[in-house]
Specification:
The chain is built from four helices and six strands, in the order αββββαββαα. The protein has 137 residues and is α+β, with helices and mostly antiparallel strands. The N terminus is likely disordered.
């Protein structure tokens, strides 16, 4: 499985050690076009993927939830986690593959859904023993 090796490697030559801003570029195509920004609710990772399969990460959760402030916080936390997975160098300057990131996103969406049900942000998971038990099942 081929790991991400893109134009982003040249642009982000050093390790990323900052929180992205809303207008931070997430994906830049081979034609140097920005295809996704941190603020987008869908990140199109297709230009980073060498396969034909769709490579989009969606952050549309809890649209009908009563606490939209919590929904926005969880979306932000999800984006930070995916951003880290995309930019974390696992070994020898290789990044996680897109399929790994997409797989982790499935688990992350499940965690986000549970957090919404318990009215907690992802960063507050440790405050609820009931939520912890749900993770362990």
């Amino acid at each position: 499985m081929k790991n991400i090796n893109t134009l982003q490697d040249t642009i982000f030559d050093e390790e990323i050690d900052y929180y992205p801003k809303e207008n931070s570029n997430i994906v830049i195509s081979s034609k140097c076009l920005v295809t996704s920004r941190f603020s987008d609710d869908c990140w199109d990772l297709s230009s980073l993927n060498n396969t034909v399969s769709p490579s989009k990460i969606y952050f549309n959760i809890g649209d009908s939830h009563k606490n939209q402030e919590l929904v926005l916080k969880i979306k932000y936390e999800m984006k930070l986690i995916i951003f880290a997975l995309l930019n974390y160098r696992v070994s020898n300057n290789e990044r996680n593959s897109i399929s790994t990131v997409k797989s982790e996103n499935v688990s992350l969406r499940y965690i986000a859904s549970l957090c919404l049900n318990f009215d907690l942000a992802i960063s507050e998971c440790d405050q609820s023993p009931f939520l912890y038990n749900q993770f362990m099942e």
